[in-house]
Amino acid sequence: MRIAIVTGASSGMGREFVRQLPYFYHNLDEIWIIARREEKLAALAQGSAVPCRIFAGDLCKGEIYQKLEHALKEETPDIRMLVNAAGFGKVGEVKKIAHREPSAQTAMIDLNCRALTRMTLICLPYLRLGSRVVNLASAAAFCPQPSFAVYAATKSYVLSFSRALGAELKRTGIYVTAVCPGPVATEFFDVSGKLPNKWKDAVMAKPDRVVKKALLDVRKKKEISVYGIAMKGAELGAKLMPHRVIMDLLSN
């Protein structure tokens, strides 16, 4: 059985991956969709062009992984694509977030880094020649960001992990792509709060376009997928300019 697995599938980028995957992979037998909100997953499955298997649960708790591991051992599927799309962010200074929501920043690390890594490790034995791993990073991964400090740090981890894992797996014919968009018009900002820089509103992208670009880049075996001229400029700027200069600009 040939499958794709998508975390964070109930909304945003994860949901968009589920919607677009059937157009890029015509021979999928199932898409396994993972998120906390079962009713959202059920609605997504109902409209999917490919049968979906629902795994409802919290990726920061062990039960969902037990369910997934059991299903993988029972079915021994060929995972054609793993999409790690689950994640969240919080806007604000570290001290202020800690005062307002004491556990939010460690929860970011748990979901954005630990859960992504655990999911990848569970799925690795079921990846085959030509399989893809797609990890949702962010343009925030390119440079430390004041008022987005922990989120940017978690996405730097995702980018670094993705590139190193991709180098390790390349000889086996398995490819890893880190998707690094700028601001995307999803529910993300309902949780994160207002963006710290007004200019980010001007480069807000639509999720369907970001995902389409990502899937095209995945097909081309690219290490990193960056949508839009502005974010490609940000990537280049982070390589050429001292990070302290960029952080000063972001702080203004």
Automatic annotation (TrEMBL):
GO MF annotations in UniProt: 3-hydroxypropionate dehydrogenase (NADP+) activity
Catalysed reaction equations from the record: L-allo-threonine + NADP(+) = aminoacetone + CO2 + NADPH; 3-hydroxypropanoate + NADP(+) = 3-oxopropanoate + NADPH + H(+)
UniProt KW keywords: Oxidoreductase
Pfam family, any one: adh_short
UniProt-listed Enzyme Commission number(s): 1.1.1.298, 1.1.1.381
Enzyme class: oxidoreductase
Function: NADP-dependent dehydrogenase with broad substrate specificity acting on 3-hydroxy acids. Catalyzes the NADP-dependent oxidation of L-allo-threonine to L-2-amino-3-keto-butyrate, which is spontaneously decarboxylated into aminoacetone. Also acts on D-threonine, L-serine, D-serine, D-3-hydroxyisobutyrate, L-3-hydroxyisobutyrate, D-glycerate and L-glycerate. Able to catalyze the reduction of the malonic semialdehyde to 3-hydroxypropionic acid.
Protein name (Swiss-Prot/TrEMBL): NADP-dependent 3-hydroxy acid dehydrogenase YdfG
Organism: Faecalicatena orotica
